[in-house]
Write a structure and sequence with these properties.
about 110 residues, alpha+beta, Alpha-Beta Plaits, four-stranded antiparallel β-sheet, two-stranded antiparallel ribbon
């Protein structure tokens, strides 16, 4: 099993959620702020330039069986790629164990 985390543009959330439906059993969505290569943006506030270096982003977390990892990564890339700086990142981690609290099921049955 693998845990896939991705940081994406907020406007891509609904489309990504729709595309992941049926491939995954569920996702966790967190509203986050951060910066990468964009280093934030500068806006004019009352005539003074103000730099906002923490931009709003969405963090998606999903745990899938190993055979679904490439499909999920492909979906994320296809939906979230605009070709512009700030499209986001995908991180893949091993998930040693998953336990469903309600039933005590473990492993793939618990996903």
């Amino acid at each position: 099993m693998k845990k896939i985390e991705c940081i994406i543009r907020p406007d891509k959330l609904i489309e990504l959620q729709d595309k992941l439906d049926g491939v995954t059993t569920g996702v966790t969505v967190t509203h986050v702020k951060g910066y990468g290569a964009t280093k934030g943006e500068t806006q004019i506030y009352r005539g003074t330039p103000v730099t906002f270096n923490l931009l709003p982003k969405i963090k998606i977390e999903v745990v899938v069986d190993d055979e679904k990892v490439e499909k999920v990564v492909e979906i994320i890339q296809n939906v979230c790629r605009t070709g512009k700086v700030g499209d986001g990142k995908i991180f893949i981690f091993p998930a040693e164990e998953v336990i469903r609290i309600r039933t005590g099921e473990r492993g793939s049955k618990a996903i």
